[in-house]
C-alpha cells in the first residue's frame, strides 16, 4: 500500500473553528494527501477586536508572518474577524491569508450585517464573541457558530464563512503561472 504525501498546514490560532476550516479546504484541494493541520498561537499585533478592513487584514497577515518565521510547513493560514461601520451600516467580516514558500494569497469574506447596538459595543472596546454571548445567552460562541450562526439562525456559520474565503484564496496556488509577478 502506497503511503500518501503528508501536507503540513499551520493555522495561526488555536480556535477549532479556524483549524477545521483550513483543514477541510486543503483536504478538498489535495484529496490524495494526508493533511496534518495544527493550530498554533500566533500574535496578530492588532487589537483583540479589529475595527476596519486594514486592521483586520494586517492581523491575519501578521499571524501568517509569525508562523513562517518560527515554524516549517507546506501552508500557513490565518483568519482574522473584524467589523466596520460602512456607509450602509455596520458589518462583521473576516480576512484570510494563506501562504507557502512561493506565494501569499489574501482574501476577504462576505459581510454579515450587524445591529448598530452590537457594533457600538465593539467600538466601546468589547469583543464580538462575548457581546453575542450576552445578547443571545450563549457561552463561547466564537469557538462554535459565531455571530454568523446566531444572526442567520445557524443557516451559515463562522466556519462556513472562513471555508468559502479560504477556498477562493487557494486560486494562486492552483494556477501559479497566472499569478506570478
From TrEMBL:
Coiled coil residues, start to end: none
Chain positions recorded as Mg(2+) binding sites: 72
Co-factor remark: Binds 1 divalent metal cation per subunit; can use either Mg(2+) or Mn(2+).
Organism superkingdom: Bacteria
Biological process, per Gene Ontology: nucleotide metabolic process; thiamine metabolic process
Catalytic activity annotation: ITP + H2O = IDP + phosphate + H(+); XTP + H2O = XDP + phosphate + H(+)
Enzyme class (EC, first level): hydrolase
Keyword line: Hydrolase, Magnesium, Manganese, Metal-binding, Nucleotide metabolism, Nucleotide-binding
Pfam family of the protein (one): NTPase_I-T
E.C. number(s) listed in UniProt: 3.6.1.73
Residue ranges constituting the Non-canonical purine NTP phosphatase/PRRC1 domain according to the UniProt record: 12-174
A GO term, aspect molecular function: nucleotide binding
Cofactor(s) the record lists: Mg(2+); Mn(2+)
Functional description taken from the UniProt entry: Phosphatase that hydrolyzes non-canonical purine nucleotides such as XTP and ITP to their respective diphosphate derivatives. Probably excludes non-canonical purines from DNA/RNA precursor pool, thus preventing their incorporation into DNA/RNA and avoiding chromosomal lesions.
Subunit structure: Homodimer.
Family statement: Belongs to the YjjX NTPase family.
PANTHER family assigned: NON-CANONICAL PURINE NTP PHOSPHATASE_PRRC1 DOMAIN-CONTAINING PROTEIN, PTHR34699
HAMAP family named among the record's database cross-references: Non_canon_purine_NTPase_YjjX (MF_00648)
Protein name: Inosine/xanthosine triphosphatase
The organism of origin for this protein: Pseudoalteromonas caenipelagi
